């Protein structure tokens, strides 16, 4: 440095930049230059092409302005300070002491010209500091005249409040006092001070479907925010200070504060948002953090949109950090924002796969009678049921097609009533449509393999029953049942269902043979003093005639037989009490009922009580609801085939 100035230190390492002190004891200019450089390079002085510095023996001196927070008065909270400007000049004994003294009288009013300069490209927003030395005045990049009062120490005490952010300096000039021109204009430049945002305000934008902002979710019953894997938007805004939100005085709002009323900082054209998440709910060793994916726009004006998606079900916290986007940020500390308790996230859809079509069984191993029930009572269920229950597999999915493992516990909204199967009303057996009655119940919902999360099996109920309507249309040759069990609802408690491009599953259980059957009694006769056997056959229609059903199963008893007429409750020695209730079984479709000796001549009609599926229209009526009957002759017997006539001689 020339002109009698001293530069300290005299040499620097460009790989380790540091500050230099330039001093001069007499007024005048000094030019900074490089004597030698290794490697050789020119000296470039920012905002001063000549690298010249002017020294004066009087001027305005700013005390140190610490780093500021946008919108915060400089005398409050973070790095609170008393800021002052003093007019100083060389003292009379300066050459001996190096001391300066006040250049203005105390307790006077002066008109100070002030302006600011922004040192940060893409910031400041042409919105400089507010200068308050009794009256708040907005500063611009042009000089603004400000009337200020000097205190008894000849100092101008002031408060700064800067609504924008960036690197600033203040420049002040004073040309006159009480309209009397000074010998020379006093000039002062402050230190560069950095104004930073108070933090980021992260705001979750509403989902187009659910219309919920998603903030404050705290349980599995909180309103739905959006679906797992579906994009949602977080708006990030740098915000200004507000009183009472910075308890630790670190220049950043406390996490959990309500910052909805904080002013957004305009003119912020630098940086983008780095987003991180932490799962809040559900908790437990089997739950997972999931993956947060996002793309951040560059801050433009006063905000940035972050398009994000989370792969899982539950509730999360988000933390956004302002990072550089090609241009370094001037702050040497992290600027953050938070979204607390964002949710609830639910599955996008369910994937469904049929794992078992099912297998039917009936009352007999090889077949079931048309219209058969589990018992003979009129209201009982059909005898056709599952040997192997139909089953589907369910997977709770995110939008990207991944399984949501956190769909468990209270966050699992599937129940047995989430499923509905249409009761089939017909059997398409091939030659004609058969009417079918079905009784369906809620099935069993269980985790896949007992432990898999977000994956389930739904098994149709053991209490499901079926029976074919027994009417004239059903009198056909034996056939294999062929009906479908179509789901018409898979819907959890949040109305999540299968993907729109998919169809609900249809189950087709492997069929069971159905036979149109009846029980048939044959007429019988014999001596009145001996038991008489009444032949019984169990038959089915083979398509052209009734044939004996050699695979019949089921029991009957003599007590199921009744005689008509009974005179005074008896037919000879036969009374209802003589009929045994011991179960009897047919052999290859044949059976018999042995009536005890009546010891009375005559005939009676024997009627056998059988279940509805073994009744028939013996009279030719439309309904198949008549019991089998036969005539029993007491006192008639069959003679010898070689005897033509037989007469008793008395």
Describe the structure.
It is a single chain. The protein has 650 residues and is mainly β. The chain is built from one helix and 49 strands. The strands form 13 sheets. Strands 17, 18, 19, 20, 21, 22, 23 and 24 form an eight-stranded mixed β-sheet that branches. Strands 5, 7, 8, 10, 11 and 13 form a six-stranded antiparallel β-sheet that branches. Strands 6, 9, 12, 14, 15 and 16 form a six-stranded mixed β-sheet that branches. The longest helix is centred in the first third of the chain and has 4 residues. The N and C termini lie far apart (172 Å). The model has no long low-confidence stretch (mean pLDDT 90).
Distance between the termini: 172 Å
> How many helices?
1
The tally of beta strands, per DSSP, is 49
Mean pLDDT: 90
Computed Rg: 51 Å
Query: pLDDT under 50 segments (min length 5)?
Result: none
Q: Main β-sheet, in a few words?
A: 8 strands, mixed
Structural class: mainly beta
Query: Helix share of residues?
Result: under 10%
> What percent strand?
35-45%
- What is the 3D form? rod-shaped
What oligomeric arrangement do these chains adopt? Answer: single chain
Topology:
Elements (H helix, E strand, L loop, with lengths): L5 E3 L12 E3 L4 E4 L20 E4 L2 E5 L5 E2 L13 E8 L3 H4 L2 E3 L6 E10 L11 E3 L3 E3 L5 E6 L5 E7 L4 E12 L2 E10 L3 E4 L2 E6 L21 E2 L4 E8 L32 E10 L10 E5 L7 E7 L3 E10 L12 E11 L2 E8 L2 E3 L6 E2 L15 E4 L2 E7 L21 E3 L4 E3 L4 E7 L4 E4 L7 E5 L5 E4 L10 E2 L4 E6 L15 E2 L5 E3 L1 E5 L2 E3 L5 E10 L4 E3 L6 E2 L4 E4 L19 E2 L4 E6 L6 E7 L20 E6 L16
Parallel strand pairs: 6-16, 17-24, 18-24, 27-39, 41-49
Antiparallel strand pairs: 1-2, 3-4, 5-7, 7-8, 7-13, 9-12, 9-14, 10-11, 10-13, 14-15, 14-16, 17-19, 19-22, 20-23, 21-22, 23-24, 25-29, 26-28, 29-34, 30-37, 31-32, 32-35, 33-34, 36-39, 37-38, 40-42, 42-43, 42-47, 44-46, 45-48, 48-49
